[in-house]
């Protein structure tokens, strides 16, 4: 595989189709929110479109959003499905994102989120899959994989989170981590799925006062995850735009450089797009 990064920002009026062909197109809108193009389908990850500001997450605790999204829902263009890692935190699903889900044709997510959201939300159990019809024939398989949004033992505090693996004939195998901080889980996914072509990793080394430890991958862990997965390309999401991230693009770049993996990293800023092609 090889990759190219678009030399220009997204259109000011819509997310353009990149014509990913047999590869993966990624349009970063900000935070965990991106449009993924694969197999002729357009998937949206964790919709968060609200303005910068303070967002309560519990008694006396807030998350601070520091940057607006590159585009908002009316300008997204058609989306075939939403991959929602979880619904309990406003940096992954905010007020505008919830409104968007009421019009989405399909939302794949956890059991709890599907109950709370209703509508077109569909629960996937661990290792269960949904096959989405591709416009040119065949299907894109979306498999729910585990994720742990913090250190071991923090599940009762952070709640259930989903990751996803995308696969299909003549398509790259893509891992979308969701808010996962566990390399043990990455090893489990690698053992069950085999090598991953593209890892879309939620990074940023997020921290809050509630948990003693990181809630998402550090840059060093993201580089290690790339090795564990056998991923030839890594596209990080969710490492900017919020005050609880302790690492950003510079730390990701430095970590991949130190690990000798700089050629595997496709680092986007909001409003930019890239294609990772077979």
Automatic annotation (TrEMBL):
Keyword DNA-binding part of the UniProt annotation: no
Superkingdom assignment: Bacteria
Gene3D superfamilies linked: Ribonuclease Z/Hydroxyacylglutathione hydrolase-like (3.60.15.10)
The Metallo-beta-lactamase domain, residue ranges: 42-239
Coiled coil: none
InterPro entries xrefs: Metallo-B-lactamas, RibonucZ/Hydroxyglut_hydro, UPF0173_UPF0282_UlaG_hydrolase
Record's protein name: L-ascorbate metabolism protein UlaG (Beta-lactamase superfamily)
